[in-house]
Amino acid sequence: MASLIDNYEQEYAVLTADITAKIGRIRTQNGNDRRTFVQDVDRQIKDAQELLEQMELEVRGVTGASRDRLRGRVESHRVELKRLTQEFQLAKKPKEDSIELSRDDSWDNSITEDQKERLLDASDRIDRSGRTLQNGYRMVLETEEIGSQVLKELHSQRETIQRGRGRLRDTDAELGRGSRLLSGMIFRNLQQRFILAAVALMLIIVGCVVVYYSFKSKS
């Protein structure tokens, strides 16, 4: 159960990292590119909500002290998704008309402190998203390596089973030939015993006839 929740959390982390990166792109794009990013983020937010619902269902089936801890993790994810949704709503609003600035004003003076903080916050989120994507990619590679090792072991076990079946078939054939040879030997033995009994019976009959005629000639 906990491992399934961990898998959901990994999918959620990768998804929210992509959402954060695309929200930053929405602010800098125009036209069709902007609409494409808005549609993608809207769909991904719905996917993230479905993942949270799946996590909540799994947490309900958990018993013991770990249930409260897992519930707290899911709640923190929901707060994070709410924050991302709010940022998305702000990012997709039409840009306000730019205020004309004096040519003598420098670029540094045209940026307010609030805008600087937002840019720094967006940069931090993008960095976190990049690290999350790297961790997710590393986990995918590790999973692929484990799957490859499992496939190799299964292939080796399959070859061992096939060799065992071949030896079993050979042993069965040998047993069949031995059984036929033993049956032939028993048949020949019985045949020889029958012949010996017939010869002995004939000798007894001949002996009785000889004795009978011997007594009869004397009398």
Key words describing this protein structure:
mainly alpha; 0% strand; 219 residues; single chain; rod-shaped; 5 helices
The share of residues in extended strands comes to under 5%
Quick one: biggest sheet? none
> What is the ordering of alpha helices and beta strands?
HHHHH
**Which class best fits the helix and strand makeup?**
mainly alpha
Whole-number mean pLDDT? 79
- Are there runs of 5+ residues with pLDDT below 50, and where? 96-110
How would you briefly describe this protein structure?
The protein is mainly α and 219 residues long.
Could you describe the 3D structure shown?
It is built from 5 helices and no strands. The protein is mainly alpha-helical. Helix 1 (2-26) runs antiparallel to helix 2.
